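To illustrate the input format used throughout this study, we show a single complete record. The first block contains the structure-token representation of the backbone; no residue identities are included at this stage. The design step must infer an amino acid for every position from geometry alone.
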């Protein structure tokens, strides 16, 4: 009954269905991987709220040359809570403009913290509103504390899509916190990530850390796997219809057969009508 599956047309359809199903399974697996990654990030964010910080130097690789950054810590270390001790260097402070907190646009102020070994890490001390005069008006931020300070913060990776670095209002000015570009403006090696201060100083607003939408990736995972199953079921359904003659092609054949049968009956009726009168002729 299913010998037709060995014909070139059905073999090609089977190959297409299997290929589509395999691709969809791989897409579902990738979404599942992203689900686990984002769930791990959310776990670190939650753990940082209550957990004890670890020393920065035990987590991130020490940078080497002045004007360069250390290695990017990767997504696996993002948002980990760390502690670090050093002295602030306000001469190389950075203002990141166009940053939004609770719907308001302002600035994030990042100040290098120089460690005892001569390396530095940027500390995002928090958000401040612009001065009166518009969203780009120079902000008034509290000065960095003097002397040795210990900062507790969460690891933030360097932002992508690097923006130009300018000088404005006595600070380095940028739109995005691109550490490789900022490091070139500083006289010491810079760590490959910066820190969001967990307890900002008075005058600053803490930078919120939003959870990743892991459930969206979980939903996409199920969706792609269902599509993969549907591709195989659609092929099986079409094959079953073909095997039982329930296809558009078979329907057209039955119509043709009905037409031929009607023609045969008409021809037969015509022959019978011709014979009957001939039999009744007088002799």
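Output of the design step:
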């Amino acid at each position: 009954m299913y010998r037709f599956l060995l014909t070139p047309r059905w073999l090609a359809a089977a190959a297409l269905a299997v290929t589509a199903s395999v691709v969809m399974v791989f897409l579902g697996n990738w979404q599942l991987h992203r689900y686990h990654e984002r769930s791990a990030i959310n776990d670190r964010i939650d753990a940082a709220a209550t957990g004890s910080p670890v020393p920065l130097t035990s987590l991130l690789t020490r940078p080497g040359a002045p004007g360069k950054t250390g290695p990017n810590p990767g997504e696996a270390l993002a948002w980990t809570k760390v502690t670090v001790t050093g002295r602030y260097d306000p001469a190389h402070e950075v203002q990141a403009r166009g940053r939004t907190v609770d719907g308001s646009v302002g600035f994030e102020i990042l100040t290098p913290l120089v460690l005892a070994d001569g390396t530095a890490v940027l500390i995002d001390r928090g958000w401040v509103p612009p001065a009166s005069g518009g969203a780009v008006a120079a902000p008034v931020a509290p000065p960095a504390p003097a002397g040795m300070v210990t900062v507790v913060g969460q690891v933030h990776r360097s932002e992508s899509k690097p923006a130009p670095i300018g000088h404005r209002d006595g600070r380095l000015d940028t739109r995005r916190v691109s550490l490789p570009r900022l490091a070139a403006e500083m006289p010491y090696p810079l760590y490959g990530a910066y820190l969001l201060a967990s307890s900002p100083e008075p005058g600053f607003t803490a930078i919120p850390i939003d959870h990743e939408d892991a459930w969206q990736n979980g939903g996409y995972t199920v969706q792609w796997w269902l599509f993969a199953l549907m591709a195989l079921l659609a092929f099986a359904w079409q094959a079953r219809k073909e095997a039982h003659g329930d296809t558009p092609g078979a329907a057209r054949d039955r119509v043709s057969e009905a037409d031929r049968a009607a023609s045969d009956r008409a021809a037969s009726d015509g022959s019978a009508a011709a014979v009957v009168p001939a039999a009744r002729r007088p002799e």
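Structural context for interpreting the output: The first helix runs from residue 8 to 50. Residues 68 and 79 are 22 Å apart (CA to CA).
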